[in-house]
Amino acid sequence: MMAKITVMLVDDHAVVRAGHRMLLSQYDNIAVMAETARGEEACQIFVTVRPDIVVMDLNLPGIGGLAAIRRICGRDPHARILAFSVHDEPLYVTRALEAGCKGYVTKSSAPEILVEAIIKVAHGATYIDPDIASRMVVQPAAGNGSPAILTTLTAREFDIFHLLVNGSTTREIAEELCLGYKTVANYVTLIKSKLGVNTAAEMTRLAYQYGILKS
C-alpha cells in the first residue's frame, strides 16, 4: 500500500481550512497533518513536520504567501508547494512559480481540481489550473510575455500593488495585511517609483495593460 500524501494547509480563513480538511478526509491516500493561518508559522512548521505538500494561500497577513513560498523553498529546494488563491491572473501564477511553487489552483475551481493538483504535485509534476494554463499559452503573443517592469516588485510589493489597483485604500491594505499604515504608505511610494508612475490612475492603467485587471 502506498504511503499517504501528507499535507499542510496555510490559509488565514479558518472556514477555508475546515473545508479543505473535510474535502481531503474523503481520500484514503491524503492526510492533513498540519495547518496555520500565517506565512511565518508555515515556514517554521514546515521544517518540523516536513509535509509532502503545502497548500498555500497567497493573501496572508504578515510576510504573505509569495514570500513564505520563497523562504520554504530557500530552506528546501525540493519542497512541493501548491498555491491556492483567489487570483486567476496569469502574472500571479508566474510570480508564484518564480517563487518556487509547483502548482497553482484558484479558489473558484471545482474541489476535484484541488485534489488532482495535490496528487500530481506530490508525484513530482507541475500542475496549473486548466483555465489559467490556456490563457498563459495565449497571453505572450498579445503582450510580450511577463512584463519586466512588474517583475521588479518584491512579493509584498506585488501584493500591495494588486490591492491598490483593485480599489483598496492604504488604510484598508494595512488592516488586511496586518501592517502599519506608514509601512504600507512607504511601500506605495516605492511601488510608484519602481513602476515610474505618480498616481493611482496610472497604476490602474498599467494593471489593465498587463491583464491584472479585466476591462
Automatic annotation (TrEMBL):
<dbReference type="Pfam" id="PF00196">
    <property type="entry name" value="GerE"/>
</dbReference>
<dbReference type="InterPro" id="IPR001789">
    <property type="entry name" value="Sig_transdc_resp-reg_receiver"/>
</dbReference>
<dbReference type="Pfam" id="PF00072">
    <property type="entry name" value="Response_reg"/>
</dbReference>
<feature type="modified residue" description="4-aspartylphosphate">
    <location>
        <position position="57"/>
    </location>
</feature>
<dbReference type="GO" id="GO:0000160">
    <property type="term" value="P:phosphorelay signal transduction system"/>
</dbReference>
<keyword id="KW-0597">Phosphoprotein</keyword>
<dbReference type="GO" id="GO:0003677">
    <property type="term" value="F:DNA binding"/>
</dbReference>
<dbReference type="InterPro" id="IPR039420">
    <property type="entry name" value="WalR-like"/>
</dbReference>
<dbReference type="InterPro" id="IPR016032">
    <property type="entry name" value="Sig_transdc_resp-reg_C-effctor"/>
</dbReference>
<feature type="domain" description="HTH luxR-type">
    <location>
        <begin position="146"/>
        <end position="211"/>
    </location>
</feature>
<dbReference type="GO" id="GO:0006355">
    <property type="term" value="P:regulation of DNA-templated transcription"/>
</dbReference>
<protein>
    <submittedName>
        <fullName>Response regulator transcription factor</fullName>
    </submittedName>
</protein>
<feature type="domain" description="Response regulatory">
    <location>
        <begin position="6"/>
        <end position="122"/>
    </location>
</feature>
<keyword id="KW-0238">DNA-binding</keyword>
<dbReference type="InterPro" id="IPR058245">
    <property type="entry name" value="NreC/VraR/RcsB-like_REC"/>
</dbReference>
<dbReference type="InterPro" id="IPR000792">
    <property type="entry name" value="Tscrpt_reg_LuxR_C"/>
</dbReference>
<dbReference type="InterPro" id="IPR011006">
    <property type="entry name" value="CheY-like_superfamily"/>
</dbReference>
